[in-house]
């Protein structure tokens, strides 16, 4: 909604500062400088590294890159809540993993079940319904659910520094895409409001669909089989299928993002690859090589040699969440 706002002197000063520093939530340092310099180089028509507007594609992982992913991926926490609601109809699940651990809210055991276990949870709780029903349930959950550590809505667990990056890139003619292992329909229910990324620029894991013909209200029925799991090598495949252009910027946070960064940064011309390293146990979490969620091992070992920027969350981010104290 457009409107007129009367700004006090302090608010006006804050707005002016934000305009002078598009990455105000970042601390000064090599990571911030690399992003600013890359955008300046690629958008200056007189620069040798100029990138035409049609080629300005930036891709972002979601979980752990744009918002937090602990104690479990938020879509899995959504699945666990649905599992609790469905428990009476499926008593057999109380003795079957990963359902047993999920019903007991044993986060570590659920995470330890790995990708196969998480996909079982998602298949059992997020299929067998129409696309409209699923979207409505996601939106209802996001409106009411609270994060177990911070007691805030999950959409408040987005990273302010990454919101700044998204806005800065779009202001300079870049199109921003999400490429995530999370469900494409789960994310499309809220990414435009949270990040300014519209549904058609979201790539994620897909389930099989049936088209249900109806002259008044046709719909898509979500089936139990996974059609495409967007992780690892499937991330650049998803980009090729949906975008049709090689990105020039890629942000991730785990080894599941390595192929996406590799595909992006091995192209011709200027390229930028960035990995978010979770090092801030006080404001968020600290984890990397040993984590069951968002493991970052090869990226730490190989990233610097590949020219990728490793963002140290504790050192490089002056602010983590929008509701924390601004710098």
From TrEMBL:
CDD domains on file: HAD_like (cd01427)
Molecular function as annotated in GO: hydrolase activity
Keywords: Hydrolase, Magnesium, Metal-binding, Signal
Signal peptide segment: 1-18
Entry superkingdom: Bacteria
InterPro entries assigned: HAD-like_SerB, HAD-like_sf, HAD_sf
Ranges that cross the membrane: none
Claim: S-adenosyl-L-methionine is one of the keywords in the record: no
Keyword Hydrolase: yes
Pfam families, A to Z: HAD
PANTHER family membership: PHOSPHATASE RV3661-RELATED, PHOSPHOSERINE PHOSPHATASE
Protein name: HAD family hydrolase
Source organism of this protein record: Fodinicurvata halophila
């Amino acid at each position: 909604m457009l409107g007129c706002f009367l700004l006090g002197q302090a608010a006006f000063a804050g707005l002016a500062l934000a305009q002078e520093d598009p990455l105000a939530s970042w601390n000064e340092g090599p990571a911030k400088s690399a992003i600013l310099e890359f955008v300046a180089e690629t958008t200056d028509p007189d620069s040798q590294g100029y990138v035409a507007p049609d080629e300005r594609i930036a891709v972002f992982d979601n979980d752990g890159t744009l918002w937090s992913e602990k104690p479990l991926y938020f879509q899995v926490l959504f699945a666990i809540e649905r599992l609790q609601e469905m428990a009476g109809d499926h008593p057999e699940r109380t003795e079957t993993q990963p359902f047993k651990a999920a019903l007991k809210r044993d986060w570590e055991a659920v995470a330890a079940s790995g990708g196969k276990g998480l996909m079982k949870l998602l298949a059992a709780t997020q299929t067998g319904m129409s696309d409209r029903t699923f979207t409505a349930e996601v939106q209802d959950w996001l409106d009411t659910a609270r994060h177990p550590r911070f007691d805030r809505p999950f959409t408040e667990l987005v990273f302010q520094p990454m919101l700044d990056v998204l806005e800065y890139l779009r202001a300079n003619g870049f199109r921003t895409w999400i490429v995530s292992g999370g469900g494409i329909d789960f994310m499309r229910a809220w990414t435009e409001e949270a990040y300014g990324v519209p549904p058609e620029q979201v790539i994620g894991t897909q389930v099989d669909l049936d088209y249900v013909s109806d002259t008044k209200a046709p719909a898509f029925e979500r089936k139990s089989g996974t059609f495409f799991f967007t992780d690892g090598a499937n991330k650049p495949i998803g980009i090729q299928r949906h975008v049709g252009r090689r990105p020039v910027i890629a942000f991730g946070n785990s080894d599941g993002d390595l192929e996406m960064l590799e595909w992006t940064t091995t192209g011709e011309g200027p390229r930028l690859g960035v990995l978010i390293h979770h090092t801030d146990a006080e404001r968020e979490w600290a984890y990397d090589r040993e984590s069951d969620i968002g493991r970052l091992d090869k990226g730490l070992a190989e990233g610097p040699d590949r020219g990728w920027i490793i963002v140290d969350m504790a050192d490089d981010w002056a602010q983590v969440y929008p509701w924390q104290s601004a710098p």
